[in-house]
């Protein structure tokens, strides 16, 4: 089974170059994006929601126009291994998730998913073989409609934090969140 | 001025293919990553923090091994147009930010950054010309040490949400955050 225009092996190389290594979650994520597209209209502008920050966002970024930086991919980290591609205007789309109820036939995937073995004891070759053989058989999909409250995204402009002398969203008024202690750096030396 | 191994024009094409269009923030972000690397040791494993979710994360993902899915890039959205690359063990690194105090010589960049004109009235050609000419001259850098509390990242394993029958982090105990209403889908039909 191909993953969009890639063979399984080509996709593994793509994942390696972007993600650093052929992580099982990104590989399975490829089949998830493929399955979502199979059920979406051929034409349309689709945004993405990813329900985990682990691995899966990179499959979305590699295979769809949606990235974390362009704002078309939103990560709502509720910890489900699930993604949704949906029409950005209507909210109608497809949610695909790795279905634990379908994992019994694939013991190495199940063991990986539930972290039943230390990573070092994982049989990576068998795991990849099972992932390739399983393809979409470990996934489930739903037609969904994303709540309208999620469709309109406001990206704030910039103002100057009087303390840091850097830009920050104007809504955060006086000083920026950095100066309010939301992030901890110990600054040492200005270098340019 | 090159951006790592890319010419300015090559980098623009790279950004177009990943981000969808040559967004000024991702282009400037390229110079920011380049500047950070100039001040980092040649050897080392560097994680990234990005202080905005707008555009800049994609420059990091394109030019460093750090992605949102592999966990080496962390977005702490405090709204500063700033990134930090730091040694993942010691926390020592370089923070680079677009410095508003250096923007007066570059009116089109300044106007873009503060959103002083509607996007349609922006002179994109002039903006790109200024970005290319300015290079690192609109940036400032600091040697920093990232607080140790940020260095150790725990990625939770998976358990089964009894309601949704999907996996979720075990720490979230009974039902998953989805079932607790943290994300709103209206489910319509199971399709596979």
Write the layout of secondary structure elements.
The structure is a homodimer of 192-residue chains.
Chain A: H1 8-19, H2 24-39, E1 46-50, H3 56-63, E2 73-75, E3 82-87, E4 92-98, H4 107-113, H5 124-134, E5 139-146, E6 159-160, E7 167-168, H6 178-182, E8 185-190
Parallel strand pairs in A: 1-2
Antiparallel strand pairs in A: 1-3, 3-4, 4-5, 6-7
CATH class of the largest domain in chain A: Alpha Beta
Please report the total strand number of chain A as a whole number.
8
Beta content of chain A comes to: 15-25%
Broad structural category of chain A: alpha+beta
* Rg result of chain A: 20 Å
Most extensive contact: A-B, 84 and 84 residues
Mean pLDDT of chain A comes to: 89
User: SSE string of chain A, helix = H, strand = E?
Assistant: HHEHEEEHHEEEHE
**CATH architectural arrangement of the largest domain in chain A:** 2-Layer Sandwich
> What order do the strands of the largest sheet of chain A run in, or round the barrel if closed?
2-1-3-4-5
CATH fold type of the largest domain in chain A: 60s Ribosomal Protein L30, Chain: A
Number of helices, counting only DSSP H or I runs of 4 residues or more of chain A: 6
Biggest β-sheet description of chain A: 5 strands, mixed
Uncertain parts of chain A: none
Oligomeric grouping of the chains: homodimer
Q: Kindly, what is the distance between the CA atoms of the first and last residues of chain A, rounded to a whole number of angstroms?
A: 51 Å
């Amino acid at each position: 089974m191909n993953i969009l225009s890639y063979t399984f092996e080509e996709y593994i190389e793509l994942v390696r170059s972007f993600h650093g290594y052929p992580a099982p979650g990104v590989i399975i994520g490829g089949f998830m994006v493929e399955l979502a597209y199979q059920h979406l209209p051929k034409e349309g502008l689709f945004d993405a929601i990813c329900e985990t920050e682990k691995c899966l966002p990179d499959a979305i970024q590699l295979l769809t126009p949606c990235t974390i930086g362009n704002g078309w991919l939103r990560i709502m980290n509720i910890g489900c291994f699930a993604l949704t591609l949906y029409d950005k205007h209507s909210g109608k789309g497809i949610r695909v998730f790795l279905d634990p109820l379908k994992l019994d036939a694939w013991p190495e995937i199940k063991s990986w998913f539930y972290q039943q073995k230390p990573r070092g004891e994982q049989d990576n070759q068998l795991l990849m073989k099972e992932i390739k053989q399983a393809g979409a058989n470990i996934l489930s999909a739903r037609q969904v409609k994303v709540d309208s409250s999620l469709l309109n995204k406001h990206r704030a402009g910039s103002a100057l934090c009087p303390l840091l002398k850097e830009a920050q969203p104007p809504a955060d008024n006086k000083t920026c969140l950095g100066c309010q202690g939301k992030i901890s750096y110990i600054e040492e030396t200005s270098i340019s």
